[in-house]
Amino acid sequence: MILSFPKQAFDIFREHFPLTVKDAGAYNSFRCGPMKVSIDWCYAQGLGNVCALRASAPLGLMKMNTLVIHPMEKDAPLFSFDYISAMGNHTLLLELYDTMQGENEQLTDSLSKLFAIKSSLSELADYNLGQHWYDDIKMTPSLAKRTKKAHISQLEQSATDFLRIYVALCATAQPAVEGNTKVSDYVNGLFENGGPSTDTFKKALGEEKARQLFEQIIFNTITSYQKSTR
């Protein structure tokens, strides 16, 4: 998934959910400080919002791929993937956030499979993300690894397997409960309490434009916008 991002990720979605490409307007391609950012944005029918970001710094000193899945139509966790290549280091973040309405016993088997992927990478060094206000809703299968070039293929396979299991999990999850605001609350929390990527976009774009990007496109938490662009 890392080397063919986001095509391979979208192909995995199409195994379960039809995708409709959406127009991110000015955010299809833009600059965030020294970084050039491009966005591929889709609506997954029966699932929700899928947003892929690719960012690169001048001279290829840093490259980053990000995938955010907001399962608006399924009672499933919020998903976030980041892969960063910089200074000879390769960092993989696979994160699930408990934004569901309640306990979901059907997820147990899938979460066990996701945790097995995390365990398979135990020999690779963990990447210390520090402490953040949202840590209490981050789910156990979430992982953060930093390694060198020799382990890229292992990171790539793990990311692909993780996404495939997550998408299959969403396909069998119960429909979302009307009125769930947990993802909206999470996004508001990123702006009120801070977050690594959120702070970067706020600094480069200003809070108003950064909020527009996060609320309308990356997470698509604004109901009126969701309805008008489908």
Structure description:
A hairpin with a 7-residue loop joins strand 5 and strand 6. 36% of the residues lie in helices and 26% in strands. It has helices at 7-14, 108-120, 152-172, 182-193, 196-205, 207-218, 223-229; strands spanning 19-22, 29-32, 35-44, 48-56, 62-70, 78-86, 89-97, 143-147. It has 7 helices and 8 strands, in the order H-E-E-E-E-E-E-E-H-E-H-H-H-H-H. It has 230 residues and is α+β, with helices and mostly antiparallel strands. The longest helix has 21 residues, at 152-172. It is globular and about 45 Å long. Strands 1, 2, 3, 4, 5, 6, 7 and 8 form an 8-stranded antiparallel beta sheet that branches.
Number of strands: 8
Give the ordered list of helices and strands.
HEEEEEEEHEHHHHH
Helix tally equals 7
Percentage of residues in strands: 25-35%
Q: For the record, give the distance between the C-alpha atoms at the N and C termini, rounded to a whole number.
A: 26 Å
**Biggest beta sheet summary:** 8 strands, antiparallel
Helix-and-strand structural type: alpha+beta
Uncertain ranges: 224-230
Shape: globular
Average pLDDT, all residues: 92
**CA radius of gyration:** 17 Å
Helix content: 25-40%
List the helices and strands and how they pair.
Blueprint: H1 7-14, E1 19-22, E2 29-32, E3 35-44, E4 48-56, E5 62-70, E6 78-86, E7 89-97, H2 108-120, E8 143-147, H3 152-172, H4 182-193, H5 196-205, H6 207-218, H7 223-229
Antiparallel strand pairs: 1-3, 2-3, 3-4, 4-5, 5-6, 6-7, 7-8
Helix pairs in contact: 1-3, 2-3, 5-6
